[in-house]
Write a structure and sequence with these properties.
Blueprint lengths: L9 H13 L4 H37 L3 H12 L4 H34 L3 H14 L4 H52 L3 H14 L3 H29 L5 E3 L7 E6 L3 E5 L6 E4 L5 H12 L5 H13 L3 H14 L4 H18 L17
Antiparallel strand pairs: 1-2, 2-3, 3-4
Length: about 375
């Protein structure tokens, strides 16, 4: 009987209306009028049901920001609706459009809460509901701009976090580097060159920063040069190539028989042989032993090694002087002297809070 749901068939409706009008007092006219009334009531009920169901679907769509879906459903039904139903659908469409600012406000509120907690991804997802679910226009433009702003903020914060993490790693690595240098220096200053070299090698393996690895490579070279020089001097003494008469803590002249990691082997008029621990020899006397008695005069490489000896004895002025003398003796050592000088200065900067910056030279000392 009905051509379309929610809409009376026009030909049928016209026919019933004509019969009812032409034969109001006859059976066919009365029946047509009754049928027409019943059909209109049925149409109104069906229309009301359809509108109610549509409103439920639009409310559900709006709850998830699917405004376009809600509008599309309304427009699809309006295309075949009766005038009375079309009016209800138009009202519903206006209601949906009026909801858009409120929906956007709720989305923005949730997004701001998420962004405030640092969850920019969640905030972008909220605005994405508007971008995907709203029809093109003001609200989509606002949501798109908000997402762009959030991503810029997120990128800046990510970059800041990366910078902070890099600075933290750099600081930690720098601290490790300085600790390695102090440990190696303490060992080398006690003539424990193997321990010093092991500390440097361990630190070198742990470093990732190229400049810090380069610094340790330079220090490794310095330690090796001093060790080789120390062993050369020890060999000369053991072979009797040099005769050293020296005074340490007393006026008695002592003959140096040899040197080793534990100290200086001495002979005096009272004692045939005694090992004098390095810890009992002051740093200047240690340097003087190598500088004035053991080193080959005019040898550029041994003069360079003497700079390392002075450096590890805390005699930074003497170390500086030896670097200059070595470079003058052999111009090919000028660059190496410059590199070593940079490391010596770096060590002074590292230890400045705990070491005296200026070391006084004792009287009677002269450099090569």
């Amino acid at each position: 009987m009905y051509a379309e749901a929610g809409k009376l068939s026009p030909p049928l409706l016209e026919t019933l209306e004509r019969i009812a009008a032409e034969f109001p007092n006859q059976v066919w006219g009365v029946k047509s009028a009754l049928l027409l009334s019943r059909m209109k009531q049925d149409e109104e009920r069906r229309s009301a049901t359809l509108v109610t169901e549509l409103k439920a679907r639009t409310r559900q769509a709006l709850s998830s920001c699917r405004v376009q879906d809600a509008l599309a459903a309304i427009d699809e039904m309006r295309s075949t609706a009766s005038p009375a139903m079309a009016e209800a659908l138009a009202s519903e469409r206006s209601a949906v459009l009026s909801e858009m600012p409120l929906i956007y406000a709720r989305v923005r509120s949730r997004a701001e809460i998420a962004a405030a907690s640092g969850d920019f991804a969640a905030a972008c997802i909220e605005y994405g509901r508007v971008i995907d679910g709203f029809p093109p226009g003001e609200w989509v433009d606002k949501a798109t701009a908000a997402v762009s702003t959030l991503r810029e903020i997120e990128e800046r914060r990510a970059a800041q976090a990366a910078d902070e993490e890099r600075r933290r790693r750099d600081h930690a690595e720098r601290s490790t580097y300085e600790a390695v240098i102090r440990k190696a220096y303490d060992a080398a200053s006690s003539f424990k060159y193997d321990d010093a070299a092991a500390a440097v090698e361990q630190g070198f393996a742990a470093m990732t920063d190229a400049s810090l690895k380069q610094g340790l490579a330079v220090y490794r070279e310095i330690i090796r040069a001093e060790k080789d020089f120390f062993e050369a001097c020890s060999g000369r003494l053991s072979r009797g190539e040099i005769d050293i008469q020296i005074r340490f803590s007393s006026e008695e002249k002592l003959t140096v028989l040899g040197i080793g990691g534990s100290g200086v082997a001495l002979r005096s008029e009272k004692l045939e042989h005694v090992v004098y621990p390095w810890k009992n020899v002051d740093d200047f006397q240690k340097f003087r032993l190598f500088d004035e008695y053991c080193a080959r005069k005019g040898d550029a490489l041994e003069t360079l090694a003497l700079a390392a000896v002075a450096f590890h004895r805390g005699l930074f002025v003497d170390a500086e002087n030896k670097l200059g003398v070595a470079a003058n003796l052999n111009r090919k050592l000028a660059e190496k002297s410059h590199i070593w000088r940079g490391f010596f200065n770096e060590y002074e900067n590292i230890t400045r809070p705990v070491r005296a910056r200026s070391i006084q030279r004792q009287p009677g000392h002269s450099s090569q």
